[in-house]
Amino acid sequence: MRVGMGAHAASCADRLRAMTADSDPWTHALWAATGDTGSTVPVLTAVVRGLAEGACEPVVLPAVRHLARIGRAARPAADLLRDVPAGDRRLRSSGGRRGFVQDEEVRSAVRDLLDASSA
C-alpha cells in the first residue's frame, strides 16, 4: 500500500535509499516513492525499538504511524511492539498534559500498526 509520490519522486530513489543507511527516521519517503520496504522497514523498526522497553522519543510516533501505513511488511516492528498497548508505563517524551495526550496517541498508533500488519 504505497502512498502518493510514485513517479514524481522516482528520480530521487537512489538518494533516498542512501539516506536509509543513516538510520534516518524519515526514510518512509523512500517507501512512499518506490514501495521499497526492504530498506525502510528495518530503519523504522530500529527507530521504534526503544518503545518496547518504555522509551519514547518524539520521533517514535511518526515512525509508528509510517509503519502502520506500510502494512503487512511492517510485521517485524509489530511483533516487537505487540505488548506496548497493554503496558502500564506512560509512553511520553514530554511532561504535563501533553504527556498524557502523547501516551494515548502512541498507544493508538501501535494498535493501528498491529491491525495493519496482520491484515
What does this structure look like?
The protein has 119 residues and is an all-alpha fold. The protein has one domain. It has helices at 6-9, 13-19, 28-34, 37-48, 60-70, 75-81, 96-118. Helix 5 packs parallel to helix 7 and helix 6 (75-81) crosses helix 7 (96-118). The longest helix is centred in the C-terminal third of the chain and has 23 residues, at 96-118. The chain starts with 5 loop residues before the first helix and ends with a helix. The mean pLDDT is 84.
List keywords for this structure.
119 residues, mainly alpha, 7 helices, globular
Which of globular, elongated, flat, extended, rod-shaped describes the shape?
Answer: globular
- How many individual helices? 7
Strand content: under 5%
Secondary-structure element pattern, one letter each: HHHHHHH
The overall strand count is 0
Helix content: 55-70%
Q: How many domain units?
A: 1
Gap from first CA to last CA:
12 Å
Class by helix and strand content?
mainly alpha
- Oligomeric grouping of the chains: single chain
Which blocks of ≥5 consecutive residues have pLDDT under 50? none
Summarize the structure.
The protein has 119 residues and is an all-alpha fold.
